[in-house]
Structures are given as structure tokens and as C-alpha cells.
Predict the structure.
Amino acid sequence: MTVGTRGEDGDFRGVIGTTHAESEPWWPDSASSPEGSPNVVVILLDDTGFAHLGCYGSSIDTPNIDGLAAGGLRYTNFHTTALCSPTRACLLTGRNHHAVGMRAVSNFDSGYPHMRGYIADHAATIAEVLQDNGYATACIGKWHLAPMAQASAAGPFDHWPLQRGFDRFYGFLQGETDQFHPELTADNHHIDPPARPEDGYHVSEDLVDKAIGFVNDTKSVRPDRPFFMYLAFGATHAPHQAPDNYREKYRGRFDAGWDVVRQEWFQNQINLGVVPEGTILAPRNPGVEAWEDLSLNQQRFACRLQEAFAAMLDHTDAQIGRLIGHLERLGLLDDTVIMLLSDNGASQEGGSTGVTDEMKYFNVVPEDVDTAVERLDEIGGPRSHSNYPWGWAQAGNTPMRWYKQTTHGGGVRDPLIVHWPGGIGGAGERRNQFHHVTDLTPTLLDLIGLDMPGERHGREQSPMTGTSLAYTFNGPDEPTRKGPQYFEMFGHRAICSDGWKAVTRHSPGASYEEERWELFHLDNDVSETNDLAAAEPERLRSMIELWWGEAEANGVLPLDDRTIELFRIPMRHGTPHQGRTYRYVPPISHIPAGAAALLGNRSFLVEASITRPPGGEGVLMAVGTGNLGLTLFIRDDRLVFDYNIFTDHHVVRTRQPLPIGETSVGVHFHRDGDAGTATLFVDGEASATMAVPFVVRVLGSTGLDVGRDALSTVSEEYQGPFPFNGTFHELTIHLPERGTDEMTEDAVLAMRTEMARE
């Protein structure tokens, strides 16, 4: 007879005899959550400002979000990091973003511990902890917490959602996506969108369909298991896109202009108690003109852009309402903790005028408003990638100054709503205690009755720095328990402590030691307009010293204000960019930007080895969207190259019909300063050439398709996906040696300075 023993690796603990009659069975315990554990839904909006929700002062319709606030708590002194990936890292781990390797967006890896582009293994996520304790977990929507060089079907998958605690994932890995033509990932593989915009498709609706499906799957089969759902919308990040009926609803709603609307929203905030009486509305930010000083075309363009934003937020609210309604129908709403927040303040990437395509901001291409008004009806639809101007962004951040990416209130003060009828009294009340996004994971663990483990999978875990805000649920007048909280983003710095805030705004390349700090008594100055630095020099000095101490403790150093240059991924081991030649063998999955060959801002040579049947045609390579990109395809027996510069199509085609059978075709693009030349070749012989007036620096966030154009089609000469119908042997892309035809460091600094202009 064999007796099972208690082993560290979970050995059998029963008794094994010669027969069943002489044996005793044993079953290992399954992971289970503490008794009475609630379901959890965290809803994360993107680039939604402090004032954008109706319950925070806006005139944009958000009835379902407002309903959550009416049945729960609104926090009016809640803060984030000022940028998407860092906020997400803080939210999911309960630690500060520098300490877990996410100083900025996950597209960057600076070579320092604070900027790796992924959450460090020593910082378990709330999903991992809940998964270990019996919760069903799902991530739906935007991830943006994996290095983009690792976001292809080749992996590695270490930092994808399924490897960081989620049972299921449906959404997109990049920082943004086209809402009508999204780059989608299901679990660990890329998929095509299930429908097209002409079929009525929009990704926000798709995400909530999948969220509802997850709830049904979980509660139908295992009603005993609580669930954790992280629902991160692409909204309201650019592109601002919504169905036609939502855009039509807002026609003319903002014709009074941003000065009038901002004043109206500010008064609403006072009436709602979101900001206290006596708060001063901050003056217009530098670069924001008085509405009455704009030309008629500037006003028309700006209004249409704001209408698209409002339509997108309203449409998102409707999807949230569908999910809430479903939870209520299933009898789950009362026992589900819902947290709804934004990841940072309203976006400044639309510039002073707004843009038909956000990539104009990253390419430092000014918007020609007088031309743009000819496309007003396209704004917000499948053929636009728009973002609104600074004036509307500051309205979204009412009553504060500045925007996303900065550490002033406009960047870091954001809405937070907590709804839990089964656990919170005081429905509809406000809470004004100072808190930070690092506090959400500690709060959830506190409510469920779990601790962050000291060790997980053999890796010692760093302690959480967040503070549970559960004490505020039934304690409206409790003083804040949150200690000092530092902020840093691209060199902008701030610290809050005991109701005071010290903050400095950084200029690219400027001395950190010589920059001027401001001081605000935040408890009495929500809008940060009464600078007390001169009146309280000792307090300011101690606050600055406190910032440096917190910075050292949380891995903020070295200070690093680089942005655009970090997109130039280093040629190093462990990325797809180890050499200068990329060989793609179709059929191949869509390759996201960051993992594909980088064709912006340089010369390149593309060669396609094919066997072409009579009449053979289709896309050989496509990068980008219908607003910006490049595509090489065969149509009407000619090889065609379309260099699409914000819908200004530069097209060249071969003069003679292409041969039938095995052949090699391609394009050589030669950059010469800001312009370039594209030459088509067939079997090594040049066939046609065209001049290109402008070299696109950043080709957008949509990656590379080989053998088809499956998302937003780059060229107007075909309908996607237009797959090549011959035999496609391979596509090879050759890039020049690094630095031989790229922008100089001085040019990069000039570009960044221009991008940061206010």
C-alpha cells in the first residue's frame, strides 16, 4: 500500500492501495475567492477631461455614466499620471509608474529600468492576484502595456494580457486604433474585424458585445465564481469617430464657441459642487485664441471637430449603458463594484487649429483649415482620424490649465466614479479626499479581503504605494489618508502633499535645476491660478526637496524628456529590428506598427517575388490608412505605388503590362531631405519614377499588411482587402544603415519643440 504525502508541489495526499476498496481518494483545493467577494468592473476612458462628463459639468449627454454617479460616489480630487500607459500600469499594480518600468508609453524602451515598455515582473497586477484567488478575469479594449516590438504574432507574449493575469482578451494592443477599422487581437492572436463600417460596425459596440458575452459565459456555467472585467475603451482618444446619427445629434451644439461653453461648464461645476464656490476659471492657455478672433472657417472646423468628440463620448456612454443594463437584468448590479475613470486629461495633440488626422501633429504638418472645411462632413466618420483644437481640450479640462502630458491639473486631475449599491451608502454624494490612480488596486483588494502577495511565482514582489480609498465610502468628511504623491511626465514635475501642490512645466532641453516652480494651496485653489511661490518660499523649497526624495525612492531618475526620438527603436537583440532587411513570407498575420519594418522618415527598397497568373492583381504591401500611408499593388496589369500624404495621393504606375508567370517587382523610395523619389522596377529594371514632395516622418499607428489591405484601405483605387490572387513567394524590405538618411538630433529637438508649442 502507498500513502500519499504532503509535498510542496501539490503531491497526492490520499491513500493508494492495491484496489479501490483499499484506497482513499483526494482532490486538491481549487482556487477560490473569499466568501461574498463582489464582481468588479473597471471602465477606463481615454483622454477624457475632468469636465467632459455630464455629472462633472459638461453639456455632452452621458446619461448612463451620470446614472452611475447618481447611484454611487463622484470623486473630485482624483489624479492620474497625465499619460495612458503609465496610468494603466499604476491602476493595475497599485505602484507608481516609474517603479514598474512605465515612465511613458509602452512604445518606448529607453534602456533604463523606469522605461521598459512593460510592467515589471516584481509588480503583480490586480488581475494576477484575483486570478490566483478564484476570479474569472477578462481584459477588453485597449492594452498598451506591451512593447510594440513584441506585439506581432511572433511574440514573445510575456506582457500580453493573457500573460499578466487575464483569462480572456479582446481588443487592441496599440495606444489607439481606428474605431471603424480596428487592429484587433483575440486572446493571443490577431484577427480581422468581424464587420466593416458599411455594415454598421464600430469597435466600442463590439467591445461591449464581448463584455456581455464574458459575463454570460462566466455566470451561466460557474455562477459561483466572481469576475473581474477591465473594460478600456479606445474612446475618447483620437480618432474621434462615431456613427452618423450621433454626429448629426450634435450639429450646431457648440457654435457659441469654446469661451462661452467653457464658462457654461464651469458654472455647471459650481452648481453641481464639483468645484467649490470661489474657484477661479483659469485663463486661456497660451496658443488658445479668443473664439471671436477666429475666422469663420476656423470656427466651422473647430465646431465640427468638437461635435465628433461629443458624438464619440455619447456613443460610448450608450455602450456603457448596455453593459449596466445587462448586469441589472441578470441581478448582478448590486453586487458588482464598478469604477469608472479617465486615464489623463484632454488631449493637446490636435494643436491650435485641430486636425483632420492626428498624425499631422506627430509629423508637424499644420492643418490648412480653409482646405479642411471642404471635408467637414467626413469628420468623425470612417474617412477621418480627427482630433480637436486646444481651445476645446481646455474646455474639457475646465476649470484648469494645460492638458494631457503635463503635470498641471489639466493633465492629472480626472473624474472617478465608484458604484456599488451593495457596499456603499450615500448614493449621489461627492468625495473630495485627495487620491491617485495607484490607490485603486489597494482599494479593490481591501474590499475583497486579499493582500498583495510578497512573492509570486518565485519572484519577490515590490510593495504597493497606493492607499485604499475604501474609508471614504461611508466617510464623506474623513481627512485624506493619502501621503505625498509625486508626478513626472516628459520632464514636467509636481508633488502634492497636505493640500499643497508644487509644479513646474518643462521645456525640451531646458535645465531642470533652473526651471521655475509654482506653488498652489490645492485645497483652496482647484484651478491652480493663485501662485504662492513668492509668498511661501520655505514651503516651496521643502516641497521641491520632497519631490526629489520621492523621485529617488520611486525610480524616477534619470530625468528624461525624450519623446519622438524614442520611437526609433534601437537595433538590438530581442526585437524584430536586428538587421536592415525584413523578409516576410505570406500568408502572414497583420504586423502591428513597432514590430514591422519602419518605413517613415527614410529611404527603403521593397521587393516582391511573385508568380502572376493572367489578370493577376491585388495588394502586395500596405501600411497605414486611407488618410495616411503607402501601398504597392497590381491593378489592370500594372504595378502601382500610392504614397498617401493625408489624402493627397501621389501615384505612379508602370508603363508596360507586367509579365505573366514568375517575376520580381518592387519600389525604391529615395529620401532627399524633406522630399523623395519613388521608382518602380520589374525584374530589376526601372519602369517608372515620380517625385514625392514630402517625406512622412510617422506613418501612423496602423501596421503592415502583406498580400492584402485588410483595414482602412490606403488607396482609393481599390476596395479592401483586395488580396493578391497569384502566388506570393515573399516580400523583402531593405532599409539603409541607421543614420544615413534620418533626421539629425538637432532636427528631432526642433520637431519636439514645435510639437510642444502652446
